[in-house]
Amino acid sequence: MWSIISDRRYLFSGALVLTIWLAGPGRILVAQTSGPNREFMKALTTAFMGADASVKRRIISALKDVGEQAVPILTDALDDPSQDVRRDAAIVLGNIGKPAQSAITHLLRKLADPSETVQQKAVTAIGQIGDGQEAADRLVPLLRDSSSSIRKETARALGRIGIFSPQIATALVTGLGDDKRDVRRESERALARLGPSAIPHLEMLLSSASESTAPTLLRAIGNIGPEAIPLLVEALSHPVSGVRREAADALGDLRAGTPEVIAALISALTDSSESVRMEAVDSLGDAKVKSDDLPKALEIALRDPSDDVRKRTVEALGEIQVPSHTVVPLLVEALGDADQDVRDEAADVLKRLGAPK
């Protein structure tokens, strides 16, 4: 029921309050509703159609709290002459999320909108709403868009949708070589969200990846989860040192303490690259497994030519789960290291190991 009070128009029905300027100072539409009814939505649609762009934007802003019942109005607003109205409509549809599924087709059309801002917000909304293969496939060409903002939002949207296909994975791997850091970062995150089913295809792409993108691709694969462990172990023998480094790091992050993993990390302690040896020591310390082979392996690392590797080895000796008597002699030996930081670390670890539990 409508009533005019002091040049304000009120519709009462429930608890939620929406406030929208309809036509200049003093004329406000206030809807109180716990879930907008048909009368309210019909009146709001009529008001929207006859309003100017500034009022439409206020109406759209208020509709973010209405939810699914606002989708028809917002979908129509995607074709408004004002790019600001179209942009705002895409933003609110994205905020509504899954209940706005019916707007996906219209949002896909906005990927060709003359306004780059509207395109970008449509991409974002599709990522927030969409969970279909068609939506994901339609986004892929935008990873080659001239706008870095659109490329970034496209990679982020594909990550949110999280559907694997060879086409999507290949396009995202290409994004790892983008000249913009934000695009590279979002492409990496999206690859990690493609799930375990993507690993065989990503392994194939890794074999032909450039030296600059291969380490980032391997890191993305590692972030998929434990299903990537066999590939990570194999990658410790990759010809690119950056890939070997990322493999050692990822195995530590996954706390992968199987005999096969421990053996591979121990072998990496003699890698030609200092960064690989450092990550191998790190991961052995992080593995938190009981292995009689660890003290002997770390004894080798205590003789590493790198001061940093030796210091991290001392730290790892205090972290591995083996009897103290097997590591104390090694720590005592490290007290005579040529580097002061290594000696100080050895003293600290001995102090910790000797402290009452």
Task: Write a brief caption for the model.
It contains 20 helices and 4 strands. It is α+β, with helices and mostly antiparallel strands.
Describe this structure as you would to a colleague:
The protein is of the alpha+beta class and 357 residues long. The chain folds into three domains: 130 residues, Leucine-rich Repeat Variant (Alpha Horseshoe), CATH 1.25.10.10; 82 residues, Leucine-rich Repeat Variant; 133 residues, Alpha Horseshoe (Leucine-rich Repeat Variant). The chain is 60% helix and 6% strand. The protein has 20 helices and four strands. The chain has a four-stranded mixed β-sheet with strand order 1-2-4-3. A hairpin with a 2-residue loop joins β1 and β2. α6 packs parallel to α8. The longest helix has 15 residues. The radius of gyration is 29 Å and the shape is elongated.
Keywords, please?
357 residues, disordered N terminus, 60% helix, Leucine-rich Repeat Variant, alpha+beta, 4-stranded mixed beta sheet, 20 helices
**Can you identify the CATH class of the largest domain?**
Mainly Alpha
DSSP strand count: 4
- Termini gap: 74 Å
Strand order of the largest sheet: 1-2-4-3
Quote the beta fraction: 5-15%
Q: What's the helix count?
A: 20
At CATH's second level, what is the architecture of the largest domain? Alpha Horseshoe
Q: Supply the CATH superfamily name of the largest domain.
A: Leucine-rich Repeat Variant
Radius of gyration: 29 Å
- Overall domain count: 3
